Amino acid sequence: MNAKRTQSDSAEPLRHDIRLLGRLLGEVIEECEGKRVFDTIETLRRTAVKFRREGDDADSKLLEQRVKRLQGNDPNSVARAFSYFLHLANIAEDRDQNRRQRARALTDGTAARGSLREAVLTLGRNGVGVARIRRLLADACVMPVLTAHPTEVQRKSTLDVHREIATALTQREGPITPEELTELDAALLGRVATLWQTRMLRYTRLTVADEIENALSYYRSTFLQVIPRLYGDLSKLLNRESTKPFAAPPPPLEPFLRMGSWIGGDRDGNPNVDAATLERALLRQATVLFEHYLQEVHALGAELSITTLLIAADPELLALADSSGDDSPHRSDEPYRRALVGIYARLAATAQALTGQNLARRSTVAAPPYHAPEELSADLAIIAASLAAHHGAPIGKLRLAGLQQSVAVFGFHLATVDLRQSSDVHERALAELFERAGTQHNGKPLAYLTLTEEERVALLRAELAQARPLASPWIAYGEDTTRELAVLRAAAAGRARYGKQAVRQTIVSHTETLSDLLEVMVLQKEAGLIAPAGHDIAADDGLMVVPLFETIPDLQRGADIMAAWLDLPEIRQRVKQAQSGAQEVMLGYSDSNKDGGFLTSNWSLYQAERALVDVFSARNVRLRLFHGRGGSVGRGGGSSFDAILAQPPGTVAGQIRLTEQGEVIQSKYKDAEVGRWHLELLVAATLESSLAPRAEATSAEDAHMAHHGPAMSLMSDTAQRTYRGLVYDTPGFAEYFFAATPITEIAGLNIGSRPASRKKGQRIEDLRAIPWGFSWAQCRLMLTGWYGMGSAIESYLETGAPDAPRSRRARLAQLRDMARDWPAFRTLLSNMEMVLAKSDLAIAARYAQLVPQRALRDRIFGAISAEHARTLSMLKLLTQRELLADNPTLQDSLRERFAYIDPLNYLQIDLIRRHRAAQKNPNPEVDERVQRAIHLTINGIAAGLRNSG
To answer: What SUPFAM superfamilies would the database entry show (predicted)?
Structure first.
């Protein structure tokens, strides 16, 4: 009873916020749409809530009937109402997360799991001191990479209002007067009214330029603020002396945590990305960054009003002030302000030189631009040193220290933009270059595409050693070749302009052979990014070629390809001299899942990582894994903290990059405090995973693999057969999928610049993995996060394997041990459990009714239902409890959410039925209204399920 009461008490602030926002939304709807519409929405809400609380099928049927009776504009109003309620609930939950973390720190002073403080304390208990953490960070790379993959259904306009609502909720928590509370609630009502009167959907498809601007909004609201703070907090943990009131703040930490982006450079399957979009991305990033720097320096000048009439200053600071060009008599005794006038002028000149824009907020003196961020850092260091030497250390900690850290992290580029393209495109471009150059092979004109792999490797290595160019300015090439060379030349120009951190990697999708990587090296040589083999290699020379292993066969071949790559002398030299001894490998979660199913994808990724560790260790090369994770569990989603800790030993080692995609970006980073927490989780997990006792972890992992690896492999084989048997081998499955999910309607939703399918038509093979998973989430099946697991576990329990425990009871005990003790398997089951908790077979069955052929519908949905029941049964058998019984907070949250998601699902089904029927007898006006309502339901369901993309 006490535990239950404590849980209830802790949940009360969240419930209060949700009730408040729900009430305000209701008031806005009644005012704007009238009482009839409000009553219609309220009736549906109460019916859905009653069904979820009591589970009476009669309520479910009543809800379905009431949804079907909606006519005119009512479906749109209903969809918007439930969608916006879920948006508001998300805001309240995010604020509650912040509230709980603060409450824990205030009440018992303990650090939350996943915090930097807890990570440092945990490492200390394991004998890892501050000096060792510092050594790791000196060479570490932790980088979230924002992508524009199309699962973000919310507009920037609504996200901006979300931030204002979150701010108002936070302000309500403080000690305020009744009058102030009234004003805040009036402001909240105004924000909610703004939401209701703002168009939820985009009427035109996003352009790459739109995606760039959307991403940059997160830098303004979150990253530029919280990343320097995170560094500051970590610096204090690693240097206790700096916390003394007048102790000089330590110098900025080496920039181990940086931001990355694919937006503007990811060409794989997106014809809208080219050299111009890359140039625009780099330009807009620099513009936002210099606007921030100028604002910070301006504010710093207002703060540092220190006069030499009262306190001395260093000679270096006085010299900097004298060289500033500021001769105002009002500041003659204020050297810090005079110095900052000069810094501001140089920053403005730098911004003008790099962006072609005058970004200064006020007139400035004539000054030369900074040639590199290090010059700006040096000037700021002079100010910091003078303050520290003359009793001004507390002043320097106010704003200056954060600005210094920002310059170290963001440079003049803000974020590293990756290039990405399919190996097929590189291959075709090289083939044309060789052909048009008249290259000979065995005395005949070279036909590159007909060469064997061995012949390609030999040819490409020889070409890399050639000083003469292969491409000619006098020859007009095809579109692919012209585009690829232009992008690489734009990358070279961007690196020269903004610094080499601006573009560092080029990722090769569909890497299947060694030649796929060498082709990119040749293209880099042609674009002037790298010198021919044999020439001196400078640090950071050229772009690191990063293979992306995506399908199950690619993952299985990955270690052999990387061994061959690292064994090439010219590549080994490049890795050592230009890449600081590190080589990156990207692993694809979405495509491997779509290819082999949930279990096989995870197990193949795990085995690939272990094999890569062995290859890299044997060659003394630092491995950096780049995890192509999406939001949903089927795309590598789930807790990033747990996922990092569950990696095989040696796979992190201070080096990790991971994608942040679609709706996950807004979920994690639209709120500064929530965003800071997610970044802290990422850094803390990297520290703990990298510095955990290696011998102990390796020994435990080897034991798990020896005892449980064969069982995992056997289950993986069964799961893959089960999954592929359904998806690729069942006649009519594609027809079922396109009818029983909103995939066609999702393809028409303007949520990204990238097409949903690589080719026209209805083939599962051509469909992109992201809309594939997104569609299954919309119909509440989440098939990508569990299908095949039930059959795999059941088969192992019943038949075992040659080296498995003999009895079923012993095999069950083995699987339970794995679920309890092996982080990899425990995390796998935890993620699957969350997915299953969000699935709903009753709702999915209603989507199946959209399939016109009854026999096809019954056959395929019957197989899905049977596997779902089997998976639930096996999971409960292993965990020995009901779903989420160990996480009542999440259980309660989902139960409340379902009452608002269910009506959207019922409405979406009915609208899809109407839309598809209307296509036979078109009425453009009615169909457009129905289609818009469908898109509104997609928005709401995605918001309600959160990690569904």
So the answer is: Phosphoenolpyruvate/pyruvate domain
Measured CA to CA, the distance from residue 210 to residue 200 in angstroms comes to 16
Prediction pTM value: 0.92
Q: CA 438, CA 234: separation in Å to the nearest integer?
A: 58
What is the spatial distance between Cα 591 and Cα 770, in angstroms, rounded to a whole number?
A: 8
CA 873 to chain centre: 32
User: 312-339: buried (b, 16+ CB within 10 Å) or exposed (e) per residue?
Assistant: ebbebbbebbeebebeeeebeebbbbbb
Which class for 790: exposed (0-12), middle (13-18), buried (19 or more C-beta within 10 A)? buried
Helical packing angle, 924-945 and 769-778, nearest 10°: 90
Residue count of the chain: 949
**What are the tens digits of pLDDT across the range 418-441?**
999 999 999 999 999 999 999 888
Give 7's pLDDT tier (boundaries 50, 70, 90).
Answer: very low
- The number of CA neighbours under 13 Å toward the Cβ of 36 is 4
152 or 742, higher pLDDT: 742
Any idea which residues carry the catalytic annotation?
A: 149, 594
pLDDT given for residue 949 in this prediction:
45
Q: Which residues, other chains included, contact 117 with Cβ-Cβ below 8 Å and sequence gap of 6+?
A: 111, 237
CA 716 to chain centre: 27
Cβ–Cβ under 8 Å, residues 422 and 758: no
Nearest to 406 by CA among 418, 414, 416: 414
Residue 654 CA to residue 135 CA, distance in Å, equals 10
Between helix 35-54 and helix 2-33 the angle, nearest 10°, is 160
